Structure formats: C-alpha cells, structure tokens
Amino acid sequence: MMKKTIQIFCLSLLLFVLGSAKSMAQTVYVTESGKKFHAKNCTLAKTGKKGMSLSEAKKGGFEACKNCKADAIKAEEKKSVQPKGKKK
C-alpha cells in the first residue's frame, strides 16, 4: 500500500513539473517573410506576426532579432525565476 502511494505521488509530481515547464515557454513572434524572431513589443515586427515558442522558432531556423534581442529577454526571465540565494 505504501509503495503504491509513493508511486502515485511521484507520478503526480512529474506531471506537475512537466506542466509547469510547458507553461513557462517563452512566446516569440515571426513574420511570414522574415527570418528573425521577435519579442511581442518589437518595433520591427508590427504587423502579420505569428506567435510560437522560442524552441519552435529556433528549430524552424529563425534567429533572434538584433533590435529586440528576444534571446536576452529569455535569459532575463530565467534569472528572475531563480530561487533567492543562488547566483551564477
């Protein structure tokens, strides 16, 4: 009985962690004709932009926009999520 309870707890924890990781994926934006991905507020991607995850954009061959530096935004988000007391 105890072993089954531990297994259920571990499975629940795993599902929670996987769900949390998916919701933390950064959305970046691409245009139909562009080869760069952008942050939501980038002035270079005003119209016709389509949202996708950062990992999808990189897999699709898109590179970070030098104007909005969407990669830098992702790095900043990671820093703000880090628990206090841990520094790189």
Descriptive overview:
The protein is 45% helix and 16% strand. With 88 residues, it is an alpha+beta fold. The protein has a domain at 26-81. It has a two-stranded antiparallel sheet. It is elongated. The termini are far apart.
Radius of gyration: 18 Å
In total, the number of strands is 4
Helix and strand composition category? alpha+beta
Low-confidence stretches: none
Largest sheet: 2 strands, antiparallel
Please report the number of helical segments.
Answer: 3
Q: Spell out the helices and strands N to C.
A: HEEEHEH
Rounded average pLDDT: 75
Keywords:
single chain; 88 residues; alpha+beta; two-stranded antiparallel sheet; two-stranded parallel sheet; 3 helices
Topology:
Layout: H1 2-23, E1 27-31, E2 36-37, E3 49-53, H2 54-59, E4 63-64, H3 70-81
Parallel strand pairs: 2-4
Antiparallel strand pairs: 1-3
Concise description?
This protein is of the alpha+beta class. It has a domain at 26-81.
